[in-house]
Amino acid sequence: MTRYPAIYVVDDDESVRSSLANYLRAAGREVRTFESAASFLASSDRVATGCLVTDLHMPGMDGLALQQELNRIGRGFPVIVMTAYPTAAARARSAELGAAAFLEKPVDPDELLERIDAILNGRENTE
Amino acid sequence: MARVMDQDWMPLPERRRAPLAAAFLIGLGIFVADLLSPLQGAVAVLYIIVVLLVARACGPREVFVAGFVCAGLAFTAFAADHLGDPIDAAYVRVGVSLVAIAATTLLSVGQLRAEAERRRSEQRYRTIFDGAGFPIWESDWSGTRQYLLDTVPADVDRRAWLAAHPHAVRAAVGMAVIGQANQATADLFGGTRAGMVGQSQVGEHAPGTEPALVDILVSLAEGAEMAENDVRYITLDGRTVDVVLRVRLIAEGDPWSRALLIALDVTERNEARARAEQTMAELAHAARVSTLGQLAASIAHEVNQPLAAIVNYGKSGKRWLAHDVPNIGEAEGCFDHIVANGNRAAEVVARVRSQARKTAPEPEPLDLQELVEEAAGLIAREAGAAGVSVQIADGAPVPHVIGDRVQVQQVLVNLLVNAIQAMRESAAPRRLQVRLDSEADTVRLAVIDSGVGIAGDPARIFDPFFTTKGDGMGLGLSICRSIVEAQGGRIAAANNAERGATIAFTLPVDTSV
């Protein structure tokens, strides 16, 4: 339908989730939002391609566990992790699990879009 | 042979032998004279010399024996001449002699027993004095007493006068003369027993000891037999020791001429207590910073979420409008979200503010005078450590006010601690004064410090997050204002004309009575 791969936003905070989605839509991207890691994994989108933007701290499964689960089921999403509490340990663990970026909240939406584009373009270039 | 051995084994001391021999010879002489003289028994009264000589040399039992023997001899001499005669003056003479011998014997025995008791008691005192595990020394304080009599004016409050004349206090205790000290004293104060005799003090009184000494001197001067207080000494070998010094005057000789001093070493206890207090203060501070830190982090997070959303929607709206065909509908939606998130952020802030007065105040009639004294007690140690003198101004009594006891106390302690901290850097005398004044239908409580004052507009100090402390959160005075205003009062800050600042709050007067 669109020539851009979809962007999947997982965040338990409604205002962050909706405002980011609105911004990405205004920028002409296709966006799907999920309020939890579990709801994302339960949807058919988990097998799609695109870019995953996830919060780190969420009730239930957190961002790191989601990365781990995606690795386990063999879904090689490029993942961008966002957090209001960026610790060195979380950053290292996230990178270890293959995260493409680790951003501190509040995330500037312009910057986020640039990172997403860079990742997706890079990916297209390598593929 | 056996007798000689006995003499060798347990010989009588030389000083006993001479009087005993004399007593024996005198007794014999009196008997012979009594028997042969024409004085008809008058000589027999001289037997009391024998009894007295024996009393000087021996114990009560020997005196009894001597008394009986003398009485027997007197009676024998009388019987040899006069027994069977009609009753005449000779009977009277022998009777007087016998009574004199008996009385002398009994008095001597009584005196010997009292003497023995005194010696035992003295021995016991000596044993306790020398053997006590804690320092005891005896001192002659009559010079101290005389100095106080000569120096302290008669028509003044002596305690206040002495407190104002520390040199006189030192001079007074300097008049004492140590008579003897036990080994524990020498050990504690790093001297020798012999070296202490004749000195005025066992060690040097540390600076700042004067108030304790004043207390001891005044108590004794007012007639107390015993006085005690915490005293700090610099020992002869330079250590600092804290003792509880107890002075007991012994009613003997000139007034204050025999004072018994006991020192209980509490250095270790005081050090442990100081360490515990220090740790406690650090813990309390850490707990407060950590609570405020957590609070700040959670406030920041809650406010940041809507702020981030506002930024996202704002940038999003610009993008919708920048399309070739501006999407007005989507842009409008963004504006709605911006407004909604702005309101959400404001709600968070309002919630935090109401948190400050969350616990519902329980207004009751309060005696501010009493509350001030309590608060001054709570911060006494902190004030002492910062070298701040706290003074509660004497003024006309103020009526009770209406307020929540705990919250008003919190405000008061907070203001006092702030004032102490404001003076920490100040080189000028650090004085903290609390004043209570009755105004129309309120009571005004002012906390006046002599610190560096408030830079800029004094009213700003009540703004949340305003702080002059490196590690401060800037919430204390803001919360104070919330508390005072929630109870119908006002709080204000101003710099003093001379030095420092005054923070004052009012509370409504209790009109229920």
Question: Can you characterise this structure?
Answer:
- The complex is a heterodimer of chains A (127) and B (513).
- In chain A, strands 2-1-3-4-5 form a 5-stranded parallel β-sheet, sandwiched between helices.
- Chain A has helices spanning 14-26, 37-42, 63-72, 88-96, 109-126, and strands at residues 6-10, 31-34, 50-55, 79-83, 101-104.
- Chain A contains 5 helices and 5 strands; from the N terminus they run βαβαβαβαβα.
- The radius of gyration of chain A is 13 Å and the shape is globular.
- In chain A, α1 (14-26) links the parallel β1 (6-10) and β2.
- Chain A has a single domain, classed as 3-Layer(aba) Sandwich (Rossmann fold).
- Helices cover 44% and strands 19% of the residues of chain A.
- Chain B contains 17 helices and 13 strands.
- The longest helix of chain B has 56 residues, at 267-322.
- Residues 1-7 of chain B have low confidence and may be disordered.
- The A-B interface holds A 13, 15-16, 18-20, 22-23, 25-27, 84, 105-110 and B 301, 304-313, 315-317, 319-320, 323, 327, 330, 333-334, 337, 341, 344.
